Automatic annotation (TrEMBL):
The keyword Transmembrane helix does not apply. This is Winged helix-turn-helix transcription repressor HrcA DNA-binding domain-containing protein. GO terms for molecular function: DNA binding. Keywords: Repressor, Stress response, Transcription, Transcription regulation. Transmembrane segments: none annotated. SUPFAM superfamilies: Winged helix' DNA-binding domain. The keyword Cytoplasm does not apply. Pfam families: WHD_HrcA. Signal peptide: none annotated. One of its GO terms (biological process) is negative regulation of DNA-templated transcription.
Length: 71
């Protein structure tokens, strides 16, 4: 992580997605992918957009990808 990334905070959209990721993990006990998150009505975002936000959250250290094919 770069020094610039350490000083950044997630956007409101990223915070909402992070909250959904955490809620889902608590409920189901397994990682959630961008495709499933995109089906949630509260987001109205494509899975590609959610993947980009998840990538930002990973760069910031908030989440970690279990493996590269996790969608």
């Amino acid at each position: 992580m770069t020094e610039e990334m350490k000083n950044k905070t997630p956007s409101d959209r990223a915070k909402q997605i992070l909250s959904a990721i955490i809620d889902n993990y608590i409920e189901e006990g397994i990682p959630i992918g961008s495709k499933k998150l995109s089906t949630y009505n509260r987001f109205n975002l494509s899975s590609a957009t959610i993947r980009n936000v998840m990538s930002d959250l990973e760069d910031l250290g908030f989440i970690a990808s279990p493996h590269t094919s996790a969608g």
